[in-house]
Amino acid sequence: MSEKERKEFDFGEWLAEGVDGMLGSVPKVTPALPPEFKEHTKTAFREMLLAYRSLVDAVISKTERQPEDEGVKIKVE
Fold it and tell me: What are the residues whose beta carbons fall under 8 Å from the beta carbon of 18, sequence distance 6 or more?
């Protein structure tokens, strides 16, 4: 694959595609379905959103983390 064909990873584009997919999966419940089904569907969708939140929180945490040991500091007198 040539350098031109290889596309750089774009976090914003990736996130936008994920949000579009997530919103496309919003349950569309019809009135003919039992209330228990509606409630389970609503709860499952909420859990999916919480899973996405944990993913975003992990990425944020990773970007805020201080670099690990950059070497040993020795005090010289």
Answer: 52
Distance CA 55, CA 73 (A): 35
* Residue 41 CB neighbour total at 10 angstroms: 15
Contact 65/38 with Cβ under 8 angstroms?
Answer: no
**What is the model's pTM?**
0.46
Side chain identity, residue 11 = F
pLDDT tens digits, 5-54? 667 888 788 878 877 777 776 666 567 878 898 899 899 999 999 999 99
The whole-angstrom separation of Cα 1 and Cα 42 is 44
User: 29 and 37 in contact (C-beta within 8 Å)?
Assistant: yes
Q: Where are the chain's structural domains?
A: 30-64
